[in-house]
Amino acid sequence: MQAQTPVTIDCSPNSLAQLNTGQPSAANPAIDGRWRFQYLQAYAGSSPVNWGSFGDAAIVTNRNANWTSTPANSSAAQWIGLNAWGSQPYIDGANYGNIDALFQVEFNLDPSVSLGSFQPSMTYSADNSVVDIFINGQSQLARGAGTWGLPQAGTTNQFNYNGFGSYRWLSIAMASPDWQAGANTITVYVKSGNPAMGFAAAISGANACVANDAPSAVPAVSGQPEVGQTLTGTYSYADTETDPEDSSSAGTRYQWVRSANASLTQAAQGTVLQSGSTLGAAATVAYTTQAADDKAYLYYCVTPVAVRGTLVGPEVCSAAFGPIKTATPPQPVAAKAVPTLGIWGLLGLSGLMAGWGMARSRRRAQR
To answer: Which of 25-33's residues contact partners 24+ apart within 8 Å by CB, and which partners?
Structure first.
């Protein structure tokens, strides 16, 4: 068996043409250099746990006369199968009859491609029909991908459907939650009736990625609006296509901004006090207020950056925080004066004390 070499796919025009069926291997022109093949006994089940090992897929050079030339009459793809004639395997001199065939291609997804917007188009034909397509081992029929035209024959007998005839091809946009960073596989599950078996697919032309939304951020400031206090800047990160945030030192950026204006939409409208990388939404950025911030408003402005897709989102500033005040130190409480008696008060008090003493002496004498 010859080892197929995975290619790297990005969103540039015609990048996916590298995955068309029937591209000869440099080492053996009779073998497809990208796609692999295996067949199963009929009704073996479509679960990957029932699959065996993939071998070489042969380029069909002597195709069945009933087969359309190539999918949608494209000259960029050829039929592939078990052998150059597109025939079924034989056992004891006879065809298997109704069997299942699997065609698989592996490729690498460029890191710049957004998984949420990646939906390569594929136009295909099959003998007899395609019943399912697996993305990284996950059934797209089970995902409810009915818009993919699966199964190709609908409710018709899949083993007796001429999915190989003119105008029987299908064109699908493979938008799937199962694409992943790095290595990916597309596996096409074909039902084949006696005596021929084959598959052809053109994956070329239009850009493989739909429009991708930029990431967004919602920043906020917390703390006490006083000079000398440490404030904390935080934000939430979001991306429509779930492209992860770039939390490296070259990723999402922040700026602390001061302004006399209680309404500010971008950092350039104020005075930048501090700036740098946020190191991701899970981190926080502190700023200690200064005397120059007194009576002004502070803002935490964030420019979100994703690791793929549309990388840089719009800068967003928090709501105005402040105005900042200079704290008034607590004043000591003045001691209250002890009340004093004037001269007449003292004379009166002396007489009162003398009278009280005489009365006490009389009571003692009477005893």
So the answer is: 27/2, 28/2, 29/59, 30/58, 30/59, 30/61, 30/84, 31/2, 31/56, 31/57, 31/58, 31/59, 32/4, 32/56, 32/57, 32/58, 32/59, 32/80, 33/4, 33/5
**Dihedral class, residue 33 (left if φ above 0, else alpha if ψ from -120 to 50, else beta):** alpha
Does residue 121 contact residue 209 with C-beta atoms inside 8 Å? Answer: no
Q: What is the DSSP letter of 227?
A: T
Cis before 128 (ω within 30):
yes
Token digits of residue 359 = 């009365």
Structure-block tokens of residue 267 = 């950092």
Q: What distance in Å separates the CA atoms of residue 137 and residue 108, rounded to the nearest whole number?
A: 15
Taking residue 99's Cβ as centre, other Cβ atoms within 10 Å add up to: 21
Q: What's the chain's Rg over C-alpha atoms?
A: 41
- Give the 3-state secondary structure of residue 330: coil
Identify the sign of the CA torsion 76, 104, 91, 46: negative
pLDDT of amino acid 35? 96
Strand order across the 253-259 sheet? 271-277, 253-259, 297-303, 316-317
Is the CB of residue 180 less than 8 Å from the CB of residue 52? no
Q: Please check the confidence at residue 272 and state whether its pLDDT lies above 90.
A: yes
Longest dimension (CA), the chain: 152
pLDDT tens for 139-154 read 999 888 666 888 998 8
At residue 195, the 3 state secondary structure works out as: coil
Segment 215-268, tens digit of pLDDT: 999 999 999 999 999 999 999 999 988 889 999 999 999 999 999 999 999 999
